[in-house]
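Aggregate trends can hide what the representation actually does to any particular protein. In the encoding step, the backbone of a single protein was reduced to a row of integers, each denoting a local shape. The record that follows shows the chain in one-letter code together with its fold in token form.

***
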Amino acid sequence: MLYVCKECGQTSPKKMGKCFRCGKWDAFVLENNDLKTKKVINTNKTLTKISHTNAEKVKEFTTNINEMDRVLGRGMVGGSTILIGGEPGIGKSTLSLQIAGNFNHSKVLYIAGEESPSQIKARADRIGIESDNLYLYNGNDVASIKTQIDEVEPGLVIIDSIHTIESTDTDSSPGSISQLRNCSQFLSELAKAKNFILILVAHITKEGVIAGPKTLEHLVDTVLYFEQVDTNDLRILRTTKNRFGTTNEIGIFEMTEKGLVASEDPTRVFLSSRNTTNPGSAITTSFEGSRPILVEIQSLVSNPLQSFGKRYSSGIENNKCSLMVAIIEKFLSKKLSDKDIFLNVSKGLKIKDSSTDLAIIASIISSIDNKIIKKDCAFLGEIGLSGEVKNINKLDKRLSELDRLGFSLCYLSLDSKKDVSKIKFNQLRCEYLSDIRDLDRII
């Protein structure tokens, strides 16, 4: 008998108040560890020198969904395991069904643990999925699932969801830590042995992470999070782990009656409901993978309820918020220690791009001075600890996106003047700043 942390999977012979691995309180639950899923996959493992090992070219299969392929890199790799997490009702099953319906490389086996085949068929009809290669099975026992895989010989297997799958060799209920760990490991090993793609659909906790032990994320090759932003119909697909591609890309979808549709022009979606008549709003570009997306930085500076000010930020790291405020206080002589400062990235986006520093400071100054920034004006630049405005990378793509969307003015670093001179614009004009004191004079 062992106690297991339900957050990270750490084991202990006795119950602990606080997990010494992940730091969570009251997370240990009793688990019968005597019974585990039997391994039925035997692989011959040998010791070889790397110089004597032949490199196999990784074969990738496209999903025929552009935004999904963008996030994955170039597609799904044979034998890999992909974990898709998201809140209930976010559209995980719809996305999975669309992947299954668009996968035309081989047979697809869809394991439905939460819905009946008739319910899945009704959804497939609604979103226009027709495929003779798609097989449905609503069993939840790993042994019966393996039997179906042996019979169908699919190239893609989708488990919706992994929390409903159980093994009779594990003495606990479906969704428990031991069931999640053992069933996921069994299916992942089976995928590698038979070289099919495995997609596991999972729920997330209230903290926004995949429900179950952390070992679940370590077992898989790719971890995707499906999120809903401020608008009810907009969805963002992020990757936090990808053994075969980048982790910087995001996929942007719109939920419609016909299912999930890739957003053709995400920038227009993010700026569609922008209020241009209030102070505290500044536009910048953030690179999400290989494409620039225009985002709105919103600031609100107000008097605090207590004797000292607080900092709140959404979509921007708290450390970044504190740093920008400290730079403003130091070089612009604006006292902000007795002010509450709220920072937000519109539409629920999360940005880490340092090129947004100038826009963050511009939006804070706009709110402090109660001055409105022109709606066709943008800010691009990284801010150093001495208040200087630094040049940024991929400037040509950022400025071209601003020009395409009708912006007429952009403030950026003086160091970028030479690079900008090589770019042709329709109406965009650039003005240059050496430090943030120049910014304070123009707002």
User: Anything to note?
Assistant: The domain at 269-442 is CATH 3.30.230.10 (Ribosomal Protein S5; domain 2). Residues 79 and 414 are 50 Å apart (CA to CA). Residues 33-38 have pLDDT under 50 and may be disordered.
